[in-house]
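Changelog note: in this version the structure field was regenerated for every chain. One regenerated record is shown below for reference.
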Amino acid sequence: MKFRHYFKPRYLKFNLIFVMLAVLIGLVSVFFVKVVELAFRGFLYLEPLLGWWLVVYIPLMMMGIVYLLRRFFPEAEGSGMPQALAISHLDAPQMDKIFMLRAIFSKILLIFLGTLCGGTLGREGATVQIGASLMNLLGKNLSLQRRKVMLIVGAASGLASAFNTPLGGIVFAFEELVKSRRLKFSLLKMTAIAISGIVSIALLSNYSYFGRVDRELLYFKDGIFFAAIVIGIVAGGISVIFARIVRLFMLDKSPLVSWRKNNPYKNALYCGVIVAVVGMLSHGLSFGNGYHESKMALSGEIVLPPSYVFYKLVSALFTTNSGIPGGYFATSLAIGNGIGGLVHSIWNIANPQQYYLLGMVAFLASLTRAPATAIMMVIQVSSSQIFSLPLIVAALVATLFANLFGNGIYEYQINKYVNS
C-alpha cells in the first residue's frame, strides 16, 4: 500500500517539480560561475590599466554596491552560508524574508560587481542561499518541519553544484539535519542534491574545483600526521582570531559596530582603500577569492609565499566588513592554502601540495565547525582521495582546538538571523 501511495497524482506532481527545481539549481549555479569568471577577468584586465588608481576605483565601487544593497536589494545582505545554517532555527516569516525569489537576482548582480572591483569574496555561499530560495518555492505549502528539510536540501544542492561536489553536498545536508532530530532525510532528497551536481558536471565538464593534484605528490610517510596536527592547531587558532575580529567589526554590541551601522558609506570607503592597498602590496595575490592561485599552487605551477595567508586574511576581513554581499566559504580554502604554505616554509617534511591540502581542510573545518563536510569537500575539489587519513586528522584537530575557544563565526551569524 505504501508503494502505491507514491503514484498518486499529487505526489507525482510534487516529485516532478522537486526534480525540476534540482535541475534549475544546477543551471543557475553554472550561470553564476560564468558570470563571476567574467567579472574577475574584467578586473584582471582593469588592474594593470588603473595602477594606483585602484585606490580610487575599489572604494568607489564598494560604496556603489553598498548603496544598491541598502536602497534596492536588502535581501542580498550577507554571504548566504549563515542563512542556510540557520534554517533549522527559523520560523515561516523569517524563511519568507531570507529565502525570497528576488534574492537570486540580487545576489548574482551584487557579487558580480564585488568581484569586478577585486573584492576577496566568494559566490559559493550565495549559491547555497540561492538553492534554498528555489526549493522554498515548493516548500511554502508544506508543514514547517518539511519545509525546513526542503530548504536544507536546496542549500545542499547549491553547495554541490557550486563546487562540483555532489558528495560534499550530501554530507553537508546530513550534518545540518542531524542537528535537529525532527528533520528527516529521504533517498529522493539525496538524489536531488546529486542531480544539481550532475547538471553542473554536464555543463562545465567533470572537473575538480582546484584541479587534480598529481597522484605521486600525495603518497605520504608517517611524519605527515605530525604536520597535520601542527597545521590543525595553527589553522584552528587563526580561525578563532579571524572569527573574533569579524565579531568585533560586525556582530558584537560595540562602538565600532554602531559607527559602522551609522556610517555605511564611510565604512565602505575606508575598507575599499585597505583592500586596494593590500592588493597592490601583495602584487595582486589578495584580489579575488583565491581560486586561481590556489589551483596553480596545488598543481605545482607556483609556490605561495609565506606572506600570502596574511594578505588574504586582511583582504577577506575588510571586503566582508565593507558591507558588500559575499562570504568567505570559498576564500577560506585559499586562506587554508596559505596556512599550509606558511607552515611548510618553517617546517618542511613533505612536498608543499600536502601542506596546502592540510591547511585547506583544517581552516575550513575550524571556521565552519563542520569537519565531515570540510573533509569531503577538500577531497572532491582536489581529487585527493589517497590523502584522506591526514586530511581527517587535520580537520578533527583544527575543529577540536577551535572548540576550546567557544562557538564559531557562523554560530554568531546564525543568531543574527534567528533573532531578527
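Spot check on this record: The chain has a mean pLDDT of 82. The chain has 20 helices and no strands.
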